[in-house]
Every structure is written in C-alpha cells, then in structure tokens.
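Priority: medium. Attachment 1 of 2:
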C-alpha cells in the first residue's frame, strides 16, 4: 500500500509540473516482499540451518519483525522450522512437481524396520509425495517382485529396505533398467545411493564399551567373544563385527582370536535363541562377551543364557537401541548393558531430502551415514524419555513372558 501511495503521489506531482513521468522514475517494489526475499537469500544451500538471531544479523531486521516473516514463510511452505528458532529451506519448496516414490519396507516383524517405515511415510506425506508402499516381508523373492511392481507403477524413485544381499544386484538392475533412481537403506545395492549405518563405527562403539565393562567387572579377562552375524546381508553390514573386534582390541589388545565364536542368528530373535541354546549346552565359558548384528539377535542370545541360569556370565551390547533393548537396559541388574542407537524414527526426513536432491540433479554423495550414539542405563531416560508410553507388543511378550 505504501509503494502504491508513493507512486500515486509522484504521478500527481508530475502532472502539476507538466512533465512526463517515465516508468523508471517510479519505485514499484513492495517492501515486505523484498524483506521476505532477503531472508530467503540468507540460506546458502538447501541443507543449511540458520537461527533467528543469525537471520536478524544478516538482514538487519529487528528480531520481532524477522520472527514474523519467518513464521509467514513457514506457513507458506518456503521454509521449515526444524526446532525452536531454527530454520531451513523447505524440502516441499524444492520438489517443483508432485513426485511419486516407491517404498519397500524390510518387514513388519522388527520394531526397527517398522519405525523406519513410519518415518518415511510421515515425511513423504508432509513433503507432498505420493508413496507406493510395499512390504518385502524379509523375503528375497518378495523383494524382487516388489522391484518389478515399482517398474509397472512408473514411480519417480524407489527407497528400498531389504536384507538379502544375494538379490540386491537384481533389484538394482531391475530399477536401473527402467531409469528409476534407487536409495538403499542399510543394505548397499550396486549402483544405488545408500542411507544407513556407519557399520564399522557402530561396531567399534559396541566393542569399546564391552571392553570397558570387561575391565571394570572381570579385570579385563574373558573366555569367549560370541558374535551374532547375518551373512545373507553381505560383507558391508558384517563390518559391524570387524569394528566390534577393533573396539575391543583397543582396550584388550592381547585377547586370542581363538576366543571368537561366530553364530548365524539370521538377524532374528527366535533363530538366535535356538542356535545359542545349543551353544550354551555344549560350552563351558565362564565369562562371555556378546555382540551382534542387531538387537533381536543379541536379545535372543542373552535369553538363552538366562534360561540356562548363566546370565551372570555375560556382558551384552546390541545394535539399533530398539524399544525391546531399551526396556532390557532399564531392568535393574541386567547384563544387557547397552545398545548402539541408529534413530530409525528420524530416517524419513533424511531420506526424503536425499531423494529430492537426487531428482533435482544436485551433486550428492553416494552414501549418507547415521550418527550413532551408545544407549546405556545412564542415559536411556534422557534420550528416550517417553518409552513408558509405548505399549508392549507380541515381540515384547516373548522377551519378558518368563521373567
């Protein structure tokens, strides 16, 4: 309104003076739009996060004014508010079209994969992406069929979460042949982008913590290191085991490789429970360190030792920090002493941002990794304060039914 009034006044003055007003003499800019553009120009990249006080300094706007503009830009979908007074450019703003993604979840069997799926679905909806949602059901055959289904559906991009490395080349080839970009979660696929664990680092964190507790409780002496792998997932996820041994050796450099026992628990609670039951019956080790590919495996192994009345002989660290593992960590006196967190509840936003950058032709790395954190009895309530509100499901009842 001020700009229009200014232009009108200039026109009246020109008419009174008998002069001709040129278009270049009139300022048609709207001050509020210019201020909004100044705020958007503060962001150097789509991933940059800026706080309110930083934007105040960069634009020269008073803080209350900058705050009102920021809230308006969030409401209009140009910015996202990540947390209190922290903003970035909106992913929805960058899409430029209504995208259609395929998402194939690993399985509804595991709480970890359920949380990943829920996060992806929620963030796809918030970003205005139509999602073709399928379930791989922890099956190689199903994963292949789902890949072909995505081709038939003519999706713009696929996010794939499946555990069978043996079919990963076929899944990737099926999608690549149709010109569909692929982001693989947790299990790398040939030629695909990757989002997930820094496997070696996650393993190292677990091994180092096992070694610390072994030193504190057993003076650094143990008889056996039980590793619960998942060979079908391929070599890269198995580097969790390599990292675990490296973390252990940093504090316990002299342990013998002959103390390492590998068991294939198929990444599942029941399979691991059955396999470790047999091992416990034949084994005589008095002090056992246990680490594995995920929480279902390590919880299954720990349960086998509990059944045999030998829980006090164990120190266990898991991977994923699932709700089941966190409940076990909270149990007073439990020898399940920790689990490395992956925060699957946050996967969706990172995957959506990754996908938009890929489709918009931006320069992106071939892999993005999760930032891991060790969850223990000392910090579990701080990091996951609302666990008590989550009801137990059937998988929990298997773990706790005889306690």
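Attachment 2 of 2:
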């Amino acid at each position: 309104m001020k700009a229009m009034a200014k232009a009108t006044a200039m026109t009246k003055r020109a008419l009174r003076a008998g002069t001709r007003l040129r278009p270049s003499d009139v300022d048609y800019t709207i001050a509020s739009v210019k201020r909004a553009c100044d705020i958007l120009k503060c962001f150097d990249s789509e991933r940059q996060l800026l706080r309110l006080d930083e934007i105040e300094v960069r634009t020269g706007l008073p803080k209350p004014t900058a705050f009102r503009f920021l809230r308006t830009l969030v409401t209009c979908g140009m910015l996202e508010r990540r947390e209190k007074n922290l903003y970035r450019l909106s992913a929805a703003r960058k899409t430029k079209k209504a995208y259609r993604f395929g998402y194939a979840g690993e399985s509804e069997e595991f709480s970890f994969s359920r949380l990943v799926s829920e996060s992806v679905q929620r963030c796809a909806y918030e970003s205005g992406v139509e999602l073709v949602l399928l379930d791989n059901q922890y099956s190689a055959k199903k994963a292949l069929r789902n890949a072909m289904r995505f081709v038939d559906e003519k999706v713009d991009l696929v996010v794939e979460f499946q555990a069978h490395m043996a079919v990963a080349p076929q899944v990737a080839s099926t999608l690549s042949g149709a010109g569909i970009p692929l982001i693989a979660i947790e299990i790398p696929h040939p030629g695909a982008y990757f989002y997930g664990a820094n496997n070696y680092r996650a393993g190292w964190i677990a091994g180092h913590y096992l070694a610390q507790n072994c030193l504190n409780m057993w003076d650094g002496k143990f008889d056996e290191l039980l590793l619960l792998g998942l060979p079908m997932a391929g070599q890269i996820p198995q580097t969790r085991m390599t990292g675990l041994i490296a973390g252990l050796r940093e504090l316990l450099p002299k342990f013998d490789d002959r103390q390492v026992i590998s068991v294939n628990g198929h990444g599942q609670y029941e399979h691991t429970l059955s396999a470790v039951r047999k091992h416990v019956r034949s084994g005589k080790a008095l002090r056992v360190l246990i680490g594995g590919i995920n929480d279902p495996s390590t919880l299954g192994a720990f349960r086998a030792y509990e059944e045999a009345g030998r829980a006090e002989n164990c120190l266990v660290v898991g991977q994923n920090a699932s709700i089941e593992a966190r409940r076990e960590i909270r149990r007073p006196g439990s020898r399940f002493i920790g689990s490395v967190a992956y925060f699957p509840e946050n996967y969706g936003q990172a995957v959506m941002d990754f996908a938009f950058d890929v489709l918009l032709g931006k320069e992106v790395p071939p892999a993005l990794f999760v930032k891991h954190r060790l969850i223990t009895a000392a910090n579990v309530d701080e990091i996951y304060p609302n666990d008590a509100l989550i009801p137990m499901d059937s998988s929990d009842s298997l773990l706790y039914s005889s306690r």
